[in-house]
Amino acid sequence: MVPDDTFSMKPHAICLPFPAQSHIGAMLNLAKLLHHRGLCITFVNTEFNHRRLLEAGGPSFLDDLPVGFQFVAIPDGLPPSQANATQNLASLCESAWHLMGAPICTLIGDLNGREDSVSGFPPVSCIVADATMTLSADIASEKYGIPLVNLYTISACAMLAFRYLPKLKEKGLMPPNVCLDTKIDWIPGMMNMRIRDMPTMDGTMDPDDIILNFSAAIQARFDKGIATIIHTVEPLEVDVLNALSSMAAIPVYAVGPFQLLIDRNLENENRLKHIGSNLWKEDTDCLQWLDSQKPESVLYINFGSIAFLTSQQLIEFAMGIANSSHPFLWIIRPDLVKGDAAILPLEFNETTKGRAFISEWCPQEEVLNHPSVGGFLTHCGWNSTLETLTAGVPMLCWPFMGDQRTICKYTCSDWEVGLEIGSDVKRDEVERVVKELMEREKGKQMKRRAMEWKQIVFEATSEHGSSSINLDKIVSKIISNK
Known about the structure:
Glycosyltransferase; 19 helices; 482 residues; seven-stranded parallel beta sheet; six-stranded parallel beta sheet; Rossmann fold
């Protein structure tokens, strides 16, 4: 389709996600919303992830995109890795920190050089970058004089906790030198925090850890740019958001959940609405299986895209789930067990015959909103948590790394919709918490609370809700800085 006469006058944002599943999904949803508000969008994947998206989505995945929306790919500077597996997180951080600045600059130069062609986009007028990409995006922003908008795909509570990790180091409170139950009462906006509730990386708080240092470098440039977007809902994290706003020299906007805003604003006929971001091929047969189950009877289990289990943890989870006697839908990625195949015990297969559906990947939001799903065993990734709150589903929480410990604390203690499973997974504990969630009064209380949050989230995405208002403010700011 040929652009109309006003096309060259539109603001043009390039969207730079961190090259991991949940980050790509959040940025793509924000890109859809910005496009719906009138911006031209260039969505930037790494070559590795772009290939995976095409393989998962099929040959027609990117056909018939609307005018003003395009996908492009740039190199990540990393050695080749397994075609259908999560890349090493430390390597991705190295790439985002040191290797992608030059390719981003080259891309913007190429895009601006093509602006006069018939099918070309307007010159790039804004960079919307995942906060973990801003160390590279800054280079392009300064070179071309293009304003930068930061997107934090983590929760506000985790974002604030990350900002105070250097203080832990200064105070000598980094494990293993301190009890994990030591209270932290000096972070504004955060109540009843302990050392164990602070973010960790790959199960460690080693002060020399490369990923922790990468996180510190990101936090050090918190005030760069023209605005910061946090993918959250104002009423959910109001105290933390107020604390963050008081620290920031630039506006901080809570906008979310992105998917719910898309569902409520984009017409079904819009091709862009239905383009997904999954790096694994979705198995939709699970939805038909859910149709055959009783209401709120199924436990959904998914540890996300970057969490890994040991073989023993897989066995303990499996037997605990089997012994609970509840039907379940379990997503087991091909690379879920680090360095080994995900092999389930024969006893598990025999015990769960007729009440189990196991797949490599699924359309998670459709699963969470299915009436047969009564609970979610999750790693507490923020996208998964926000999707679960939107669906009104209570959770069992097994945080793996990064922001997930902080999100787990808020899910269980502050929002009262979760039960935590200890890091040292034991089948008896898994069986106990599954039964508590699915059968007992505690689970019913969590369900009621989850439904209350569902209503609050829904109201925030209404025409006059906080998320809709903040999205309009962001678009106005981008246009005014064009």
